[in-house]
Design goal:
The chain has 347 residues and is an alpha/beta fold. It is built from 15 helices and 9 strands. The chain has helices at residues 4-14, 47-60, 74-80, 101-113, 125-139, 147-159, 171-175, 188-195, 200-203, 211-215, 226-248, 268-272, 278-287, 303-306, 329-345, and strands at residues 42-44, 66-69, 88-94, 117-123, 164-166, 218-219, 223-224, 252-254, 260-262. The strands form 3 sheets. Strands 4-3-2-5-8 form a 5-stranded parallel beta sheet, sandwiched between helices. The two termini are 21 Å apart.
């Protein structure tokens, strides 16, 4: 079913098109990511469980030539401990915008600690522009800002002979890393407002109402099951970005954390007192006993710098009165890439 208004609104609200049966245009078909079924996941209660489960995942892929995406954060740092000695690791380095030297130094430290060969994946705006249309075409929809750089990393690894990339994206979703989202018991209205990346009514001439999705998770008059929303909607969007980028490069990948599930509910008290991803912190201390747990940082991408002077979208689908100055770089990306997608497929 073609429903351009819905697809625009869903992408701006959620960063993906939630309804697989609705498409932007004829001839394009996007897929909604399907998580691993529960029966494939290993229940974990403590750090020893996590350690054993990850070791078993690596044993199952021991016939692959593994590479990994390694950042300065603890999730990928922990996975570095399980990589075969001499494996290749890939770290993003941005040639324009904020390079984050401390992040790079930590990645170098982790690679040296476990005797991995570290390669930089150099990214600038030209790299993004040269590769973004390919990942959009594969997805049949606009893409997250990380997808072009993930594609570039996968192609670099592929040229090095890597047959499977190891990633650690799922740790945030399995172990309670989204500390702002989990910071309190949200009311329905405030959670809807917080969860929309860009409110379609503020930027589109013909927006669709996205409340139907949040209504699925409503509890009573003004509460919401934000943990289930987090486990389903937020998680699906993130996983789909990695899947599309790597499939676009014809690169197999595995996220060991995605194959795990907590045996008991998250301890929200610990998270709200600053002990986010407490099992991951324990695992990091196990693997790097003489090193402080690093501060959590998202995958770097200098979108604020990329769009510092961007004037906003100009196509007919967008309102003329958008105050682009009130949007951050990640939000501007959503507007930019949606317009670019239209320019590619609807001249």
């Amino acid at each position: 079913m073609i429903d351009k208004s819905y697809c625009m609104s869903s992408f701006l609200s959620l960063r993906y098109v939630e309804d697989q049966d609705k498409q932007f245009f004829d001839g394009l078909h996007h897929q909604v990511y399907k998580q691993q079924p529960l029966e494939r996941k290993v229940l974990v209660s403590d750090v020893q469980d996590v350690d054993i489960a990850i070791r078993n995942v690596f044993r199952r892929v021991s016939n692959e030539k593994l590479g990994m995406l390694l950042s300065g954060g603890m999730d990928s740092a922990c996975l570095a401990a399980y990589m075969p000695e001499g494996s290749d690791a890939y770290t993003f380095r941005f040639m324009g915008g904020k390079i984050q030297p401390d992040e790079l130094k930590r990645a170098e430290y982790y690679a040296n600690y476990y005797h991995l060969n570290l390669h930089y994946v150099d990214i600038d705006w030209d790299t993004v522009e040269k590769n973004v249309d390919h990942v959009m075409e594969h997805k049949g929809a606009p893409v997250h800002s990380i997808e072009p750089q993930l594609y570039v990393a996968a192609m670099q690894a592929k040229n090095d002979g890597i047959t499977m990339l190891v990633i650690g994206d799922a740790a945030d979703y399995v172990f309670g890393g989204m500390d702002d989202l989990l910071s309190k018991n949200w009311s329905y209205d405030e959670y809807v407002k917080r969860s929309m990346y860009v409110n379609p009514t503020d930027v589109l001439k013909e927006p669709s109402d996205m409340n139907y999705l949040f209504e699925r998770y409503r509890l009573g008059k003004n509460s919401i099951d934000y943990l289930r929303f987090y486990d389903e909607i937020v998680t699906d969007e993130s996983y789909a970005s990695y899947e599309n980028a790597f499939e676009s490069a014809d690169m197999d990948f595995i996220d060991p954390y995605e194959l795990l599930k907590l045996a008991k509910p998250l301890d929200l008290g610990r998270i709200r007192n600053g002990d986010t991803k407490y099992l991951m912190r324990d695992l990091f201390r196990m693997k790097y006993p003489e090193t402080h747990v690093p501060v959590k940082l998202p995958m770097p991408r200098p979108v604020d710098e990329y769009f510092a002077n961007w004037e906003g979208p100009k196509r007919k689908e967008f309102r003329e009165d958008i105050d682009i100055s009130k949007y951050n770089g990640n939000q501007k990306w959503l507007l930019y890439i949606l317009e670019r997608f239209f320019n590619n497929y609807e001249k």
